[in-house]
């Protein structure tokens, strides 16, 4: 999965020459053989390298605080989402829902590489949610739908239908 994510990130970043990746170990950790012969190992390391290679530093955050928040969510992606269990899903969605309560993106009002990689990681969770569950995590659903329509991000993933109409009008009859 990580290899397709990195390929999609390359396309989003507009990198013309696709990199060659391999994987390492049982967990299939991505490895990039760089042009100078060194190996870059790990989804986050490679993603940050690609952002710098594309000369798009704003995608890592435009301030010290936003860079720290982007890094925090990138770490969350690898430590909590990669290899999650069915029991973890509710906690992951609750964490995200609470964090996104007053934010458009994970770092506030600016799209970062953390949004793209979290979107890729959360996609399998959202696909499996019922309409009622999507309503339960309304902030995650809003963010997810926004990111899946963000130009150039979705690439290899199918579109997830998110209802925009509320089921209940709130009127008393």
TrEMBL record:
PANTHER family in the cross-refs: EUKARYOTIC TRANSLATION ELONGATION FACTOR 1 EPSILON-1
Taxon lineage: Eukaryota, Metazoa, Chordata, Craniata, Vertebrata
Coiled coil spans: none
Gene name in the database record: eef1e1
Record domain GST C-terminal: where: 49-171
InterPro entries: AIMP3/p18_C (IPR053837), Arc1-like_N (IPR053836), EEF1E1 (IPR042450), Glutathione-S-Trfase_C-like (IPR010987), Glutathione-S-Trfase_C_sf (IPR036282)
CDD domains documented for this protein: GST_C_AIMP3 (cd10305)
SUPFAM superfamilies, per database record: GST C-terminal domain-like
Lineage: superkingdom: Eukaryota
Protein's name in the database: GST C-terminal domain-containing protein
Biological process, per Gene Ontology: positive regulation of DNA damage response, signal transduction by p53 class mediator
GO cellular component: aminoacyl-tRNA synthetase multienzyme complex; cytoplasm; nucleus
């Amino acid at each position: 999965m990580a290899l397709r994510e990195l390929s999609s990130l390359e396309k989003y970043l507009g990198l013309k020459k696709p990199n060659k990746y391999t994987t390492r170990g049982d967990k299939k950790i991505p490895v990039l053989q760089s042009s100078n012969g060194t190996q870059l190992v790990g989804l986050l390391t490679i993603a940050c390298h690609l952002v710098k290679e594309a000369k798009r530093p704003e995608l890592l955050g435009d301030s010290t605080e936003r860079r720290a928040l982007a890094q925090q969510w990138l770490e969350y992606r690898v430590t909590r989402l990669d290899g999650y269990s069915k029991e973890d899903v509710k906690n992951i969605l609750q964490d995200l829902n609470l964090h996104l309560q007053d934010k458009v993106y994970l770092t506030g009002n600016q799209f970062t590489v953390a949004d793209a990689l979290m979107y890729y990681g959360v996609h399998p969770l959202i696909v499996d949610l019922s309409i009622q569950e999507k309503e339960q995590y309304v902030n995650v659903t809003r963010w997810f739908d926004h990111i899946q329509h963000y130009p150039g991000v979705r690439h290899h993933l199918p579109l997830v239908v998110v209802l925009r109409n509320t089921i209940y009008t709130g009127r008393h009859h």
